[in-house]
Amino acid sequence: MQRFSLGSIDLNLLKVIYALVVKGNMTAAGEYIGLSQPAMSHALKRARAITGDELFRKTSGGFVMTRFCAEIFPAVRRIIEDTETVMLSHLKFEPETSHRAFRIGMNDYFSVVLMPRLIERVQARAKHCVLEVIHMPRTGVANNRNFLPVVQEHLDEGTIDVAVMTADNFPARYRCTSLFRERRVCIMSATNPAAQKPLTLDALLSLGHVKVTSAPSRRGWIDERLDAMGLERRVVAVVPHFSAAVAIIARSDLVAIMPESVAKLFERSHELLLLESPFAEEKQSTSMIWLAEKERDPASQWLREQISDCFIGDAP
Predict the structure, then answer these.
(1) What is the reported pLDDT for 156?
(2) Which residues of the chain have pLDDT under 50?
(3) Given Cys at both, which of 154, 162, 173, 253 links 290, Cβ 3.0 to 4.6 Å?
(4) Contacts of residue 100, Cβ cutoff 8 Å, sequence gap at least 6
(5) For residue 235, what pLDDT is reported?
(6) What is the pLDDT of residues 107-151, one digit of tens each?
(7) Whole-number pLDDT of residue 149
(8) What domain range includes position 223?
(9) Is residue 206 part of a domain?
(10) Could you tell me if 15 and 159 lie in one domain?
(11) Paired residues of 291 in beta bridges
């Protein structure tokens, strides 16, 4: 095995590899670590010569790690992040005196579930801080494929500190952690004649539906499940917010399927019935996403801890 003396190892090459992974292209990676594009290209060439591997393949979507690069990247990331921790250990976030405005990207559902809990925690620990919700559209598509570029753009540009959404397949330049899982229920008016019978799949499909989605395709996860079964539901209205769906359901014989926590908020005020959905076993998983480069930032760490603690032993 070839050995190097410490003096012969250029640790800056690890920074180049790390930056290319988390930023995805040469220009952004160079700006991230303060190198020009020619300097980045030269450094990558040196790293390739030392490792004997291409490390990255250039695609239309940016740089993609080779198998070898993917194998060594966890170690590279650990070295970079540990170094950052040592160098920034003197920096602290003091919530008691901070006037920081935290921006969280999410849709109306997550605002309803998270914000009351989070505001209570933050007010008790950082009364001068402000929480701002940046609205993210709901796609309703499996894995939120259309939603990912929107979230990535906001995170990359720093317009939000974290995002809360239903997705877990993010590029390496992001971090992701699961917050909670929640089942979906069917809601209908207490005066709906269908409430007198069991809500089987056939019964559900015989009713008119209010669909909640802001996806350009207007297709949601239920439509995908039904497609796989060769079935279709009768959609009467499509709205972007759960509150609009609830208002419609309360004055009609239509039905809607939504997260249980949201349905319970309107159950009494709108005289709704919450029924077990034929899709109840499919729970929605909610995650929190942030930039990898913010992993050790004290203020970002504190915010993420507050959000995570909102759901410890108390999922919606």
Answers:
(1) 84
(2) 1, 139-145
(3) 162
(4) 93, 126, 129, 130, 299
(5) 93
(6) 888 888 899 999 999 999 999 999 999 988 654 443 444 556 788
(7) 74
(8) 184-276
(9) yes
(10) no
(11) 174
Pick the last residue of a domain from 35, 55, 73. 73
The model's pTM: 0.68
Tally of residues, the chain:
316
Structure tokens at 290: 């942030």
If asked whether residues 132 and 176 sit together in one domain, one would say yes
Indicate which CATH number applies to the domain containing 257. Answer: 3.40.190.10
Sign of torsion, CA 160 182 275 280? positive
Of 86, 27, 25, give the one whose Cα is nearest residue 60. 25
pLDDT for 275 equals 92
Tell me what pLDDT residue 145 has.
Answer: 45
Question: Is 280 within 8 Å of 183 (Cβ atoms)?
Answer: yes
At 253, list the tokens: 């014989």
Same domain, 169 and 305: yes
Instruction: Give the DSSP letter string of the chain.
Output: -----GGG--THHHHHHHHHHHH-SHHHHHHHHT--HHHHHHHHHHHHHHHTS--EEEETTEEEE-HHHHHHHHHHHHHHHHHHHHHTTT----TTT--PEEEEEE-HHHHHHHHHHHHHHHHHH-TT-EEEEEE-----SGGGTTTHHHHHHHHHHTS-SEEEES-----TTEEEEEEEEE-EEEEEETT-GGGGS---HHHHHTSEEEEE---TT---HHHHHHHHTT---EEEEEES-HHHHHHHHHTSS-EEEEEHHHHHHHTTTTTEEEEE-TTTTSPEEEEEEEEGGGTT-HHHHHHHHHHHHTTTT---
Work out how many domains the chain is built from and give that number: 3
CB atoms within 10 A of CB 25: 14
Please enumerate in sequence order all residues whose Cβ is within 8 A of that of 120, keeping only pairs 6 or more positions apart, or say none. Answer: none
**Residue 93 belongs to a domain:** no
Please report the pLDDT score of residue 316 as a whole number.
Answer: 65
Q: Contact, 92 vs 58, CB < 8 A?
A: no
